[in-house]
Amino acid sequence: MTMKVRRPGPLYRRVLWWLLGYLALLSLAVFSVGNYVHEHAEHAAWRALLNSELDSIVEHVEHEPHYRWQDSDTLSLYRFDAVNLPDSLRTLHPGLHDGVMVKDRETAVMVRDTDSMGRVALVLDISDFHDLEQFATRWVMLAGVIMIFVTVLMASFGMERMVRPLSLLAQRIGALRPGAQGQRIDVDPRGSSELHTIADALNDYLERNEQFVERERVFISTASHELRTPIAVMTGAAELALEQPGLPDRARQQIQRVLRTAQGVEQLIELLLVLARDPARLAARAERIALDQLLPDIVEHHRHLLGDKDLSIGIQAAPVDIVAPLAVVQAAIGNLLRNAIENSGRGHIELRLSASAVLTLQDPGHGMSPEEIAAIHARMARGERVDRGGIGLDLIARLCEHLGWTLQLQPCEPRGTQATLDFGASRPGG
């Protein structure tokens, strides 16, 4: 069972998550540092204010024996030996104390030991200040959240506009079709210079690939034309030899085999020319073929390959017709049969044709491992040279691709290989 690989998310979404995390960490750091600085500044302000007031009170008491401190709305003076000392102040040691509750009010308290009054506590009511501080803090946090939201929203909009040309470029690359001429990649005007560089490189590659394909087509066409002459000579010579009187039967059989082979090669050359010039023309060469009646002729044509091998060939064919180029059908089946004979030493080769135009050929050969078969399928899909079967499998794979046929190879138990060729796409009305 193949595990499905999870694809990564879109680039813009990953960037937005990174930006959101960065802003959150930055806001947290700024808030923490700001709160730390604020607390220290606040304590310094309370300390300076209360120490200044206490200094003033102590100085007045020492120089003016009749001086009496009067509490204000925010400042109160308590002596630790007084009866009215709040319980929350009794345990305080000398120094500044913040957040002490006195009479249900939050206060800042400066405790000091003096010579004239003993231990005293100057209390500053900071409840209103803290309420204002909390109000400001809430608004600052709200402003921070709004800032992060607006920043992410603007970044999302900007990233979407920035990534859209890249997505369009990927779609246009995905729309490219093998074999099509004049394909080029256009970049959205909003795209960056990097996208234009990528598009230019792709267009240059497409142009060079077209030139390479054209050179290959010209080569195949030229080579096929050059092969026509010797094949025609062989065909003519074989036909003249067959017309000679008194030709021994064994020699006649051999010459007839040479003639059939030359005619088959001539048909293959024609197919090569069609593939090189215009593969779509293959359908124009189609004719109605009784596939079940054609199989025995193909087997008989390849029976000489058996030689002295202890091999037998059996046919189980249901009546079925297809509409396809005769030469292609003969070449496809003949290639599979030839490979089966060449890779088998003894045993039985079975050809089975179903009513749905699926041909199965099973041989008793050494067989191939699933890895070897997978490698052959991969090379055929890429159009690369297949090691087994000579030019046959390469050519047949190309022809099957253009005609809509499917060719599958799989190992058999305990040995051997099974080839399945599905002609279903060529059935009348299929």
Describe the structure.
- The chain is of the alpha+beta class.
- The protein has three domains: 11-149, no CATH class; 180-277, Helix Hairpins, CATH 1.10.287; 283-426, Heat Shock Protein 90, CATH 3.30.565.
- Helix content is 55%, strand content 17%.
- The strands form three sheets. The protein has a five-stranded mixed β-sheet with strand order 6-8-9-11-10. A four-stranded antiparallel β-sheet has the order 1-4-3-2, covered by helices on one side. A two-stranded antiparallel ribbon has the order 5-7.
- The radius of gyration is 47 Å and the shape is rod-shaped.
Helices and strands, with pairings:
Blueprint: H1 11-63, E1 75-79, H2 87-90, E2 95-102, E3 105-114, E4 118-125, H3 127-174, H4 193-242, H5 249-277, E5 287-290, H6 291-301, E6 310-317, E7 321-324, H7 326-342, E8 346-353, E9 358-363, H8 370-382, H9 391-403, E10 406-411, E11 417-422
Parallel strand pairs: 6-8
Antiparallel strand pairs: 1-4, 2-3, 3-4, 5-7, 8-9, 9-11, 10-11
Helix pairs in contact: 1-3, 4-5, 6-7, 7-9
